[in-house]
Amino acid sequence: MAVPVLGALVSVTALRRVVASPLGRVRRVAPGEGRGPGMPVPMAALGLLFVGLLVAPSTFGGYETAPVLVFAVVIVTGVGALWLTGATARFTGRVLAARTAEPATLIAAERLRDDPWAAARTHAAVLLVTTVGTGFVGVREVLLTSLRARGDDMLASPMSFYTTGVDLTGAAVLVALVITLCGLGVGTAESVATRRRGLAAQVAAGVPRSVLGRALLLETALPLAPALLLAGGGGLLIGGWFAGIAHDGSRSVPLTALLVPPAVYVFCLLAAATSLPLLRRSLRPAELRYV
User: Fold this and answer.
1) Which of the listed residues 48, 123, 201, 272 has the most CB atoms within 10 Å of its CB?
2) Nearest 5 degrees, angle CA 61-CA 64-CA 66?
3) Alpha carbon 269 to chain centroid distance?
């Protein structure tokens, strides 16, 4: 309940001056390229993460402080991944717009260059869920392996009790992933709806519909890939840290956790592809009457 309330307060605060004097803002402010937070944000996030890694073996090395460390890693990794999404979108858009000759890539590059932080706003929840999901898969494998090694005689409850509890947590993470994928699909569809007039004009000028469809998918694929790598790295850090305290200092990373970021990437592309039917309906010539 707090998330939509905070989102509404942030939106009201950000739009306060624009609503108060919209014409003045239009006259005095030149169009930009979607500036976002600068280098202090990722530098601060990486600094906090580095400090956390230094103090983790000694200060935060036990199970008692696990929630604090996990929460810090998730937040820091999420902030860094969000910044990386916007920075990658801006850099990729500029480079591809200047060098590529492929129509779909050129259209996607221009879109990313014009508003690079749109991808960060859309992918925020996906990146956080990726960090949590990757860490959970690593923790689950280490935890269940450690419990099986003890044997049923050393456990306070049957093994099925622990397995069921961990699997229920995994089900909650999967529900969160489904919700974020739905949000990603809605965000992509909203992007298509707001640009339907321009898209119809491009089709009328001779751009094939398949080119616009590929460009729509590239707008999601290009900035999301490096951000998911960083988000997955934060989750692997959580899994490796838990393996270290569970196996007497051996920080081996569970291999199954490595599959989470690529799987989330594929699901994100499939979620973005759900807006392709809306794209085809938006390319009707009747949209040109409103241009």
Assistant:
1) 123
2) 65
3) 12
Contacts of 82 (CB under 8 A, 6+ apart): 120, 123, 124, 127, 227
Q: pLDDT digits over 141-167, tens only?
A: 888 887 777 777 777 777 778 888 888
57: nearest Cα among 257, 231, 250, 258: 250
How far apart, in whole angstroms, are the C-alpha atoms of residue 148 and residue 28?
67
What's at 12, amino acid-wise?
Answer: V
Residues in the chain: 291
Which of 94, 99, 81, 105 is closest to 34 using CA atoms?
A: 94
Query: pLDDT per residue over 81-120, tens digit each?
Result: 777 777 778 888 788 877 877 888 888 888 888 777 777 7
Rounded Cα distance between 76 and 8, Å, is: 23
Q: What is the dihedral of CA 60, 66, 69, 71, to 10 degrees?
A: -170
- 11-37 residue pLDDT tens: 777 666 655 555 554 445 444 544 445
Token digits for 75? 């937040």
DSSP class of residue 254 equals: P
Instruction: Give the separation between CA 8 and CA 10, rounded to whole angstroms.
Output: 5
Does the model's pTM come out above 0.85?
no
Identify the sign of the CA torsion 248, 250, 253, 255.
Answer: negative
